């Protein structure tokens, strides 16, 4: 075979660069002189009495936001956490790590992520906030893994401003508004997650997207017992959502699922939606829901309700009551 360029072994080898140690020392000297801080892996013990090492916020302030950083956290952290303009950051909780919002007027949320790149929050219990539990805004990717987010007066988790997000093995419970909100052109993927006992389940709105994913192994997404007159899943204002097989939306006080105002929902099959005395699925104006043949839909009559102009339901399971054309 004729190569259009010399293969590696045919390239003449140059003699070793005898001055490499001098160059390395010079680079180290320049780096130190310019005050450049490289990527870091650090630890925070919120139960420590040493102020320099017992605060997440204080530790984040010392890091170079342009580099990749890993912060290990242990103990109970009674503080508001702001992650702003970090390129890549992992905040990893040791077993029992907790964030409690202090409740100051200008610190309504427990944890806010703004204008950042790739952020991972893993291993925390995040307790009650005067505002929202966790907010991801104007950020490329916010991943929440193996967390419990509970007791906020507002939403549990919010994605805003074109953000991307991922929830895996998260429990979102007992929040005063929706468990998860995805809005203003944001997108989120959810797996292995339970969303329960909130005012509403998941709210997808204003041109946003949601995918409830079934992992190769493990648990699926459960949305249950959301207690106010809201739906388990709301897809609204030109948004899209897809539900993979095995997910359940059950025991909502309101309707199981509402899709309206130019939105689209695809239900892959083997989905359980139980809305008690109200309709399992309501389809509003200019909206489409595609069902799977083996979906289990129960609720008031009609179980699938076309309630707006140009409401469309396709692929309905046999025996399901509906008023859809």
Describe the structure.
Strands 1-2-5-8-11-14-17-20-23-26-29-32 form a twelve-stranded parallel β-sheet. A ten-stranded parallel β-sheet has the order 3-6-9-12-15-18-21-24-27-30, with no helix packed on it. Helix 2 links the parallel strand 1 (40-45) and strand 2. It has helices at 20-34, 56-61; strands at 40-45, 68-74, 76-78, 81-84, 88-93, 98-100, 111-114, 118-122, 125-127, 134-137, 141-145, 148-150, 157-160, 164-168, 171-173, 178-182, 187-191, 194-196, 200-204, 209-212, 222-224, 233-235, 240-243, 248-250, 257-259, 264-267, 272-274, 281-283, 288-290, 296-298, 304-306, 312-314. It contains two helices and 32 strands. Mean pLDDT is 87; it is low at 1-37. The chain is elongated. By secondary structure, it is mainly beta.
Oligomeric state of the chains in view: single chain
Basic shape: elongated
Secondary structure tally, helices: 2
Using only C-alpha atoms, the radius of gyration works out to 25 Å
Number of strands: 32
Helix-strand category: mainly beta
Overall mean pLDDT stands at: 87
What is the terminal separation in angstroms? 65 Å
The amount of beta strand, in percent, is 35-45%
Helix content: under 10%
Order of neighbouring strands in the sheet with most strands: 1-2-5-8-11-14-17-20-23-26-29-32
Low-confidence stretches: 1-37
Q: How would a textbook summarize the main sheet?
A: 12 strands, parallel
Annotation keywords:
single chain; 325 residues; mainly beta; twelve-stranded parallel β-sheet; 32 strands; 6% helix; elongated; disordered N terminus
């Amino acid at each position: 075979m004729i190569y259009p360029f010399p293969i590696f072994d045919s390239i003449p080898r140059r003699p070793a660069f005898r001055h490499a140690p001098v160059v390395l020392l010079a680079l180290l000297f320049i780096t130190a002189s310019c005050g450049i801080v490289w990527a870091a892996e650090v630890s925070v013990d919120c139960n420590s009495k040493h102020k320099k090492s017992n605060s997440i916020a204080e530790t984040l302030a010392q890091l170079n936001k342009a580099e990749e950083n890993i912060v290990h956290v242990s103990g109970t952290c009674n503080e508001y956490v702001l992650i702003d303009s970090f390129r890549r950051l992992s905040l990893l909780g040791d077993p029992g790590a907790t964030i409690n919002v202090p409740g100051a007027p200008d610190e309504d949320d427990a944890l806010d992520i703004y204008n950042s790149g790739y952020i991972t929050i893993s291993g925390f219990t995040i307790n009650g906030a005067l505002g929202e539990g966790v907010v991801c805004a104007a950020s490329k990717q916010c991943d929440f893994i193996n967390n419990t987010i509970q007791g906020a007066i507002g939403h549990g988790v919010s994605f805003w401003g074109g953000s991307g997000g991922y929830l895996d093995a998260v429990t979102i419970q007992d929040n005063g508004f929706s468990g998860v909100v995805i809005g203003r052109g944001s997108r989120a993927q959810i797996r292995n997650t339970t969303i329960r006992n909130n005012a509403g389940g998941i709210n997808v709105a204003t041109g946003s997207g949601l995918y409830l994913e079934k992992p190769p192994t493990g648990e699926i997404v459960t949305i249950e017992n959301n207690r106010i007159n809201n739906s388990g899943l709301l897809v609204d204002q030109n948004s899209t959502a897809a539900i993979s097989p095995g997910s359940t939306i059950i025991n909502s006080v309101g309707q199981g699922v509402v899709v309206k105002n130019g939105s689209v929902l695809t239900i892959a099959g083997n989905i359980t939606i139980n809305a008690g005395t109200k309709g399992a699925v309501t389809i509003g104006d200019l909206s489409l829901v595609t069902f799977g043949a083996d979906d289990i839909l129960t609720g008031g009559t009609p179980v699938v309700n076309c309630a707006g102009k140009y409401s469309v339901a396709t692929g309905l399971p046999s025996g399901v009551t509906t008023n859809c054309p």
